[in-house]
Every structure is written in structure tokens, then in C-alpha cells.
Specification:
The structure is a single chain. The N and C termini lie far apart (56 Å). The chain folds into 2 domains: 142 residues, no CATH class; 123 residues, Cobalamin-binding domain (Rossmann fold, 3-Layer(aba) Sandwich), CATH 3.40.50. By secondary structure, it is of the alpha/beta class. Helices cover 53% and strands 12% of the residues. It contains 12 helices and 7 strands. InterPro entries: Cbl-bd_cap, Cobalamin-bd_sf, DNA-bd_dom_put_sf, MerR-type_HTH_dom, Meth_synthase_dom.
């Protein structure tokens, strides 16, 4: 409708008359949507040049709770591979909202939008890697600033990713959430062989083990993996997060449970802190 009524985009067309949109079109739409969400009329916004659009977005509301504006700003910076602007928006958002709120209400929706754009072929691996590494850096810095907790004085957690699994952002955020609530965490990170957990379990004696399964193990091997994890860690709680752990046909061993949403994990971290 915007294209037909206001000539807001001029997409290329294939030989069979199918519209194709480029990154510049997507950036323009993000800026237009941001201004319209602030109450500006589309008839006015459509007349703005690219430079005027960008200036209007930057000069807009400074409300830190305008999450959609911040998500759109991150998306636009990512599409331009503008590391400076990405860092600037993320830093300001974390400073205004606090680390945990910024992650839950801005970064998570941002990552969900990236996932949709990836499926549509609008995001390339370089753009995704830029975002992932920047977020990883922010999470490490935020976690490093937390006070140290002695393992003997609180609940002890082991956090890890299965062998071959590299999607670390959710695990890094869990690490920060637990540490900020006074838990002790043995963070093992990416690509952890399951057999090595036996030594970790006997030495560290954790109260809980949390594993994030985003892409691995493969679906046909998840049940066997969970059963083996339960065998290696018989006396502690097991928490499983990620898409591969959510299949309905999986049977959870005693002391094992699935976490569907990150908000559920935060509630769990609060609850266990009181015990």
C-alpha cells in the first residue's frame, strides 16, 4: 500500500514481474516504520529523503522504553555493517534500562527479527557474526563486573553447550543472570564433550547443570543424550533449554526438566536463590 500510494519504494522487478527488495529498501522501511510508530503521518514521512529520514529517527524520542525504536535502530545499523552505531545503540540501551532489561526487551526481539530476516534471505553471515560477536563482548564485560561469589557459600551451577554446539548467547546470558543473583557458576562454554562432565561433576559437585541445545544434538539423538547426562550427574538437577530440548516426545529422567522461555529461567534463578 505504501509503495502504491506514496511511492515510498521503487523495487527492481524480475523478468516475471516479481518485486525484489534490497538492503537499502529494508533500511528505509525500518526508518519509516519507526517514525510512523511515533505518530507521524505516512504522507509526510514518504516525502523525506534518506538523509532526512535518518536525521528524524535519530532526533526522535529518547524514551528508553520505546523498545521498537531501539530494535529498528539496531537492525538498520546491522544492515549497514555499522559497528560504531551498533555499539552506540547497545551501550545507550544498557545504560538506560540496565543489562538484564535491555537483553530481554531489546536484544531478544532484535535477535528474533534477525532470525526472520535470515529465513527471508535478507541477512548474510557477516552481518549475523558482527551482531553475535558484539553481543558476546557486551555480555562478557557485564558478567566480569559482577562481584565474585565463593562456591562453598551458595548454590553451584554448571553451564555448558553440547559437543559441536556453538550458539552461546543464551548460555552467556544465563551465566550473568545466575551470577547477578549470587549463584556460583562453573562456565564451561561451547563444544563440551559429555564424557568430560563426569570429572566436573565429581570435582565440583554442582547443585544444578544447565545445557542449551540450539542445533545439537540432532533430534534423533537428543533422548539418548539426556539419558546419558542424567546418568553422569545422578544427584543434581538438570535443566535443558533450546529448540532441541522442546520436542514433545522426549521423556525427562528424574531431576531433569525443560525450560521453555528465558523468563522461566530467570524465575528459576530467583527461586533457587532463596533456598
Amino acid at each position: 500500500m505504501w509503495e502504491q500510494r506514496y511511492n515510498i519504494l521503487r523495487p527492481e522487478r524480475t523478468a516475471t514481474n516479481i518485486r525484489t527488495y534490497c538492503d537499502a529498501d529494508l533500511r528505509r522501511l525500518l526508518n519509516v516504520a519507526t517514525l510512523c510508530s511515533r505518530g507521524q503521518r505516512i504522507s509526510h514521512v514518504a516525502r523525506l529523503s534518506e538523509g532526512e529520514l535518518a536525521q528524524a529517527v535519530l532526533a526522535g524520542s529518547d524514551d528508553p522504553h520505546d523498545y521498537a525504536r531501539q530494535v529498528n535502530a539496531l537492525l538498520a545499523a546491522m544492515l549497514e555493517m555499522n559497528e560504531h552505531q551498533l555499539t552506540k545503540v547497545l551501550t545507550a540501551t544498557i545504560r538506560q534500562l540496565g543489562f538484564e532489561t535491555a537483553i530481554m526487551y531489546v536484544v531478544y526481539p532484535f535477535l528474533q527479527r534477525i532470525g526472520l530476516l535470515w529465513q527471508a534471505g535478507s541477512v548474510n553471515p557477516a552481518q549475523e557474526h558482527l551482531v553475535t560477536n558484539l553481543l558476546r563482548q557486551k555480555m562478557l564485560v557485564a558478567t566480569d563486573s559482577l562481584p565474585l561469589v565463593a562456591p562453598a557459600t551458595t548454590r553451584r551451577w554448571v553451564l555448558y553447550l553440547p559437543e559441536g554446539e556453538l550458539h552461546e548467547l543464551a548460555l552467556l546470558f544465563m551465566n550473568h543472570a545466575l551470577r547477578s543473583r549470587g549463584h556460583h557458576v562453573l562456565y564451561l562454554g561451547q563444544n563440551m564433550p559429555l564424557d568430560d562432565l563426569k570429572v566436573v561433576y565429581s570435582t565440583y559437585q554442582p547443585h544444578a547443570v544447565c545445557c542449551v541445545m540450539t542445533a545439537l544434538p540432532e533430534r534423533d539423538h537428543v533422548q539418548a543424550y539426556i539419558n546419558e547426562l542424567a546418568r553422569l550427574c545422578p544427584e543434581c538437577e538438570l535443566f535443558l533449554y533450546g529448540g532441541q530440548a522442546q520436542h514433545q516426545e522426549l521423556e525427562m529422567p528424574p531431576r531433569a526438566s525443560r525450560i521453555r522461555l528465558m523468563t522461566d529461567f530467570l524465575a528459576l534463578a530467583d527461586e533457587r536463590r532463596l533456598k
